[in-house]
């Protein structure tokens, strides 16, 4: 039932029963001003969540009424997978729709309140969608002849390195090369030129991660670096350095844990020490440009939703993360449903990239030297290890 609870709608529902479920799952949505929820775009999301709840409630009621799991046979699992596929398709455009809704309602709600709400909501959405798409991918990988119509040809082919939507041997260098080519093509269309890009460090490094998450993050970061380089007329290449984190052996982990336990650390640090036993290797990626850095008046706002330096023309020339993926980078199963939706120019690229990075324990750090350039450090924690 965990998946069902995660998929419950965040907006207040009309019936008392629906309202209690909504409050249980996502209380902050109750604090949005009524006039904001009345916006056409946000109201559309409200209706989508009501639709999702109406589909999922029978599964909850069946389990409560009969005292057994609602999914008790292969046929039940097939039906439930079809339900999840419908929900994934229904909520494909949630982020751009919310972005436009909050932009239109900006006079009725303070920016810090919007940022707080979106930080909570988008992180919950990442988890919800990932769980749903992982279930769908595992279902269809166990039945190769049957594939959903929303899968592209490349996604429908079985791959021994994949466990659901997770690539256990993902090479960041390959993703960087692909995303750089896409962004460079857009730059050539917009500016008539494309910057040079060099990849150094350990380009053969691999780790376990969700490819679509990495693709979205890298595209957004490269988009900023390419644009800064071209607009500053810099001839210096953009340098991407890949530094993998090598897994520690168990003896080293035990020594680290014992030393931390015996040291005079604060209670908050001590409570986090068990995470040292998470031996999943990750990777740190540095993207360095000589594009003049971030202006001091802009730097404090780079993590704020709806803050953007894009013009309308820029928005048209910088679409979503890829031509085949939804703008939120999570459309592994329903990539064909992205249509023409985009959040380019709406100010969601960098904060949403950070949300993806932080979801599995990573993060993004920006270091800007105004008048010179910017270094962006993307740290990604692997989602696990595969036993030999």
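Q: What amino acid sequence fits the structure above?
A:
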């Amino acid at each position: 039932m965990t998946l069902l609870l995660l998929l419950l709608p965040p907006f207040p529902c009309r019936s008392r029963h629906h309202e209690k479920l909504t409050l249980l799952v996502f209380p902050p949505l109750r604090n949005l001003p009524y006039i904001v929820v009345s916006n056409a775009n946000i109201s559309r999301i409200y209706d989508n969540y009501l639709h999702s709840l109406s589909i999922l409630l029978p599964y909850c009621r069946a389990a409560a009424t009969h005292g057994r799991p609602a999914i008790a046979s292969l046929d039940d699992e097939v039906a439930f997978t079809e339900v999840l596929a419908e929900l994934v398709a229904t909520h494909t455009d949630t982020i751009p729709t919310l972005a436009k809704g909050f932009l239109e309602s900006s006079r009725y709600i303070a920016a810090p309140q919007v940022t707080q709400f979106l930080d909570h909501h988008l992180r919950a959405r990442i988890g919800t969608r990932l769980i749903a798409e992982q279930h769908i991918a595992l279902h269809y990988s166990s039945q190769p002849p049957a594939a959903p119509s929303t899968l592209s040809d490349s996604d429908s082919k079985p791959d021994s390195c994949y466990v659901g939507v997770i690539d256990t041997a993902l090479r960041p260098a390959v993703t960087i090369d692909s995303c750089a080519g896409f962004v460079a093509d857009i730059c050539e269309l917009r500016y008539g030129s494309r910057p040079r890009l060099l990849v150094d460090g350990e380009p053969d490094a691999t780790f376990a991660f969700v490819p679509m998450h990495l693709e979205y993050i890298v595209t957004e970061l490269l988009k900023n670096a390419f644009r800064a380089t071209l607009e500053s007329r810099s001839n210096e290449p953009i340098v991407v350095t890949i530094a993998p984190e090598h897994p520690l052996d168990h003896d080293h982990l035990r020594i680290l844990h014992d030393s931390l336990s015996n040291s005079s650390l604060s209670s908050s640090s001590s409570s986090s020490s068990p995470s040292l036993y998470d031996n999943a290797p990750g990777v740190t990626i540095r993207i360095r440009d000589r594009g003049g850095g971030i202006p001091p008046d802009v730097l404090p706002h780079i993590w704020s939703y709806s803050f953007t330096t894009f013009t309308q023309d820029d928005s048209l020339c910088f679409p979503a993360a890829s031509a085949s993926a939804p703008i939120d980078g999570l459309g592994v199963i329903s990539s064909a449903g992205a249509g023409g939706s985009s959040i380019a120019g709406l100010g969601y690229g960098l904060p949403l990239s950070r949300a993806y990075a932080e979801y599995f324990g990573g993060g993004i750090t920006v270091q800007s030297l105004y008048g010179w350039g910017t270094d962006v450090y993307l740290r990604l924690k692997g989602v696990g290890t595969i036993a030999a």
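Q: And what stands out in the fold?
A: The chain has two domains: 2-146, 163-246+281-380.
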